[in-house]
Every structure is written in C-alpha cells, then in structure tokens.
Amino acid sequence: MATDMKSSLFSFKDKDGFEINVYKWEPVNKPKAAVQIVHGMAEHAKRYEVFAEFLCNNDYICYADDHRGHGKTIELNNMGPGYLGESGWDGTVHGIHHLSLLIREENPNIPLFLIGHSWGSFISQDIIQKWSSDYKGVILLGSNGHQRSTIIKIGKSIAKKEVKKLGSNEPSIKMNDLSFGSFNNPYKNEPNPTGFEWLSRDKAEVKKYIDDPLCGFIVPASFFVEMLNAFEKIWDIENEKHIALDLPILFASGESDPVSNETKNLIPILERYKKIGIKDLGVKFFKGARHELLNETNREEVFNFLLEWLDNHLL
Predict the structure, then answer these.
(1) β-bridge pairing 19-26 and 60-65
(2) pTM over 0.70
C-alpha cells in the first residue's frame, strides 16, 4: 500500500502517573476526521499500522496508545506485562479517554471516531457510558456482551484465589487456560496447530503474532479480576442507559469468532441496545472470519466496509 503517511510517537502521563506510549499516523491531505484505535488484550497498538495507513490514504488521522501493561508502555513504566496498576480497569479507561481529549485538542474542528477491538471493545463500551458526547461514532470489533452472572462470579472467585497465591503482577496460567483454553479446539486437527489459529485464517498473520514478543503473553490474575468486575458493570442495562441514544454504534465480528461464541453472545447486547433506544445500531458478521477482522484473509473487504461506515457518519 503506497502512501506518504507520516508516523510518529509521543507519550503522556495519565492521572496515576503512568507514561502512556502513543502512535500517531497523519495523512498527506487535511484530515476529514480522527480515529482513535483501542487495541486488545496481550497485543499492542503498532499492530494496527496497516489499517491506520489505509485510513490515512482516505484522509483520516489515526491515533492508538499502548494501554497499561502493553506494548512500549510496559518498558516506559518498568511494569510486568498485563499489570494495570492499583487503579486497574478504571485507571486504564480514564487513560484512554485522556488520549481522546488530547486528540480533540489537536484536531478541534473534525469529528472523532472510536474503534475498539476485543478487550479494547469492552473498554470502549465503558467509555461511551461515561463520555458519549466526545465521539461521532463507535465501532466495536470482535466484541461480546453476554451477561452470564454465575460464570462471572465463579471466574472472579478463582481469579482472586490466584491473586492471593501468586500476587498481582505474576502471570496466571490457570486463568489463561480457563479463559482461552477452548478457543482453538475447532482447529486442533489442522496441520501443525500453534494454539492461535482462532485469531485468523491468515497463517502469516498468526505467525507474526506468535513471533512478536509483545503479543500472546499471559496476564496476571489481577487483570481477570478487573475485567470480570467490569463485565458486571458495563453489561448492566442501567449503566448502558447512560449511552447517548444518538451515538452511532457498529458491531462487526467474524462468524467464527470464539470470543462472541460465533456471534451468539453478541445477541444479548444488541437486544439491550435496541431496548434502550440506540437510534443508529449497525451489525456486520463476516462469513468464515475469526477473531482479528483487521488481520483476516478478507481484510480488504473489512477495511472497505469500515471506511464506508465512517464516511457515511461524518456529517
């Protein structure tokens, strides 16, 4: 993909003093809108550069930070992979919204869109319950929204025992296996399975993920405690009622994504959003695609679909 896109790095300190690394990708032409990308768990913002380049070629300026415990932010704060600090989920959410405010300061006359993938989509769900008015629209990729209270409570109980046993900053193999152990079952009979086939049908992209030292690490049990607490909060319809009803929201997922149980676990959140009266609620399921839509074999189709949605929501 040929482009004269300008890329740069900067950092800022969040409310707890964590130094947060940020990637910025600028188009050659004057940008018509800004896009903030919120990456997923056990990965980092640099992985979104190809998508950002595509958006820059279509006159969008893009930003993505490495969240606490991820990417270059790990090194900047001398922290363990996946450790979110004492303020945990809430501190992470506020840090990502802090970046939104910085983007709006730098680009005061153009709209800002939020795109969250996987764990980043859950964070984005929380953000729009607090600060809907800051965004022109939100895209949630590879998401979930099924409030299974009994499973969440059991998971929290196990995770808390792991924290007591291992501490807040040590990786928890048990929680990792309980959360993701079954995701690759449909692909275990493929030739030379890696355990990460569930991410994408594109074997080259899966290999990149495996070979990347900043991807695929096992997070601490404290991470799971924070995330499970967040699920109870963000998937409560009373909290979802805080979302501005005129905020356009798009859910996009692969039909074979295990995170949403092959889209089944998206139905409850779609029904709740309809019930509270979200006026512009879009849904797109890509046939055969797995978890990482932006790294799938049909990513060109995905890129163009997302661009069309963004363009259609500029005004």
Answers:
(1) antiparallel
(2) yes
